[in-house]
Amino acid sequence: MGIRLIVEILDHHGEVKVPEIIDGQGRVRSKARVGLAAGELRDLLVLAENANDESRETWLTKRPDGGADGVHADYIRRRAGGKSAAAWRNSITGLLRIGVIVHAERGGRKVAGHRGSSAIYRIVCLCPDPPHDGHRGLCTKPESVIVPMTQSREKGHDHDDPSVAKGSSSTVESVIVPMTQTPGLGHRPHDPFSSISPQVSSLSKQPRSIDQLIRAAGLDDEREIKDFQEWVTEEHQPRGAGWWRTVADRGDMPALVADWRKTLSPTGQAIPPWCGHCGGGNPAARTNPRFRTDTGTADGTPCPACRPDHIRRTA
Question: Bias regions of kind Basic and acidic residues — which residues (predicted)?
Answer without folding.
Answer: 152-163
